[in-house]
Amino acid sequence: MAFQDFDLISERRQNEKKQKLKKKIIIGSVSTFILLLIIAGAVCAVIYNNRQSNNAKSSPPAKPEKQISQSQKAIKMICAPTDYKQTCESSLSKVLGGSNSSQPKDLLKAAISVAAVELNMAINQTSTFKFETPEQKGAFEDCMVLLQDATEELNSSVSHVDVQTLGKLFSTTPELNNWLSAVMSYQQTCIDGFPEGELKSALQKELKNTKELTSNALAIISQVTSVFSNFVQAPSANRHLLSTDKDGLPSWMTHEDRRMLKGKSQKTHPQSMPPKYAGRYIIYVKEGVYEEYVTVTKKMVNVTMYGDGSQKTIVTGNKNNVDGVRTFQTATFGMFTNKHEELSSTF
Question: Label partner for 315 (CA 20 to 30 A): which of 89, 129, 214, 249?
Answer without folding.
Answer: 249
